[in-house]
Input
Amino acid sequence: MNKHRPHVYVLPEDDANRSLANGFLLHPQLDLRSIQVLPNVGGSFKVRDQFESEHVVPMERYKDRNMILLLDFDETSNRHEIIAKVIPSHLRERVFILSIWSEPEDLTRAGLGSLEHVGSKLAEECKNETRETWDHALLRHNRGELDRMIPRIKKILFPN
Amino acid sequence: MFRRIYIHNYRCLENFELPISGKPSTLLIGKNGAGKSTVGKALQLLQRMARGTNRVGDLLSVEDFSQGRIDAPIRFEIEVSIRGMDYAYKLALELPAGFKEMRVAEETLVQNGIAIYERNRAQVSLNKTFTNSEAKFLVDWHLIALPLIQEQSDKDPLSIFKGWLARMLILAPIPSLITGDSKGDSLFPNLEVTNFGEWFSGLLAHSPAAYSHVDKYIRQVMPDFKDIKNPIIAKESRSITVQFQINQATISLPFQKLSDGEKCFFICALLMASNDAYGPVFCFWDEPDNYLSISEVGHFVMQLRRSFDVGGQLLVTSHNSEAIPQFSNENTLLLHRRNHLEPTQVRVVADIEIHGDLVNALIRDDVTP
Output
């Protein structure tokens, strides 16, 4: 990982979110050297707190750093707003909150396959700019974040 | 790809079945002494047989019986899918009273449900479906038949199975012993990868295009990498040098001068290139995260996983808190042993109740089957 070139850090809430991220990284065309999944944090609000305490200052220092906060919404409609509050306005264009409406395991229960399989499909759709899986009921609330994120992230993760 | 690995009465593995069927990559975790490396030793034993070691006494000793239980046979049973064909190989070894060396009790190789050969003690029966005529003959019961039976051609199912087993890569590299010097070439790296130079030469002789694969990966992890040279330094001897370049300045280093971690990058590059060139291969790598800086571990393990996701099969062990999360709970297996008198148990981590993060639970020693 070269900190002085565009890169992405993913901050997952837990093991299940981490599995989704692993599947994303298994996509064969993704540039693995431009993305790093950080250790699990252990809760939605811990994602928020850790972002605020550990990542804001380095993000100000490294202008090519982007962050994806990957968490559960636990079927709570204001979770996005609560998390987004801690993102300073000057970093907002580089920070994205992606979530599962309830919890990632529900994607498997809904018949979408293993979490790694779902993650790989989400990566494929990011690359192709399609939204079949992203439009699933458990994921479609991410539409606004995806509209912001894909134009910025796609060229970093899928440069060819 | 392995569909089944069953081991019985071998060291700490009793009635042990490794659930890796259908998984391109799997992680083995567990405390020291749980049996992770023993799985590798069992696989290495099968690999050595396929590479030509045929004497039972050269492969196993009395100490390999679980708890010294010599009244029951040691069993190895594997099922493998190769190019759409299913192969099943079974080997049972026993130590009758008064014997100093184990002998073969049973041995069979089956392709798609039809026996290629069957063996009971010294008596071997070759099936005429796979040979010109049915044949029965005796083999010294201290010798394994698999490496001994003559292959008809490289399309012979025996040859295909044996070749696949021989090309398995069982790795536990010791970088400080890897010099990059070589005499001859090989597609068979040894356990410690001390024959890296031979492997490099063998791979490029087999598939010169593999160099581009190696080059591409090494450039990603070492941006100043320029090229690798493997010149002749004496009669039939070569020595690898690695050249680095920044702007117009270059430096050429003997392979042995690279750091331990850097040597592991090259092993990883050769492994991925081998899987591409003469795979799909099966690879067991005991603690691939050893020697790597913490910021590289995740990239390294995920790169390995990804290269086997499109073909081949990867089985790794780890204690590393950065390597373990590169796998998901569905492809992580916990090996557990209550004490030295009890056998290894294996469970898919997804089937174990874990409170919170897996790595933290492992640190707390809260993960038990």
Observations:
- The helical segments of chain B are 36-50, 56-59, 157-166, 196-206, 210-221, 260-278, 294-309, 358-363.
- Chain B touches chain A at residues 220-221, 223, 295, 298-299, 302-303, 305-306, 309-310, 321-322, 325-331, 354, 356-360 (CB under 8 Å).
